[in-house]
Amino acid sequence: MEPTTLIAQPPVKDKKGKRRKITVAVTGLNAIDSPGPGVAVIRALRESSEYEVRIIGLSYETLEPGIYMHELVDKTYQIPFPSAGIDNIYERLEYITSVEKIDVLFPNFDAELYNFIKMADKLKQELSIHTFLPTMDQFEARHKSNLVEYGKKNGISVPNSKMIFSTAEIPSLTKEFTYPMVVKGKFYEAAIAYNPDQVASHFNKISAKWGLPIIIQQFVHGAEVNVCAIGDGKGNTIGAVPMRKQYITDKGKAWAGIALDDEKLLEETRKLFAATKWRGGLELEYIKTSDDEYYLLEINPRFPAWVYLTVGCGQNQPEAYVKLALGESVQPMTKYDVGKMFIRYSWDMIVGLDEFEKISTLGEL
Amino acid sequence: MKIKKNIAISDSGFIFNPSTGDSFSVNPIGLEIIKQLKEEKSGDEIKKHILKTYAIDEATVEKDFYDFLKMLEQNKLSAENEKVN
Question: How far is B55 from chain A (nearest CA, A)?
Answer without folding.
Answer: 38
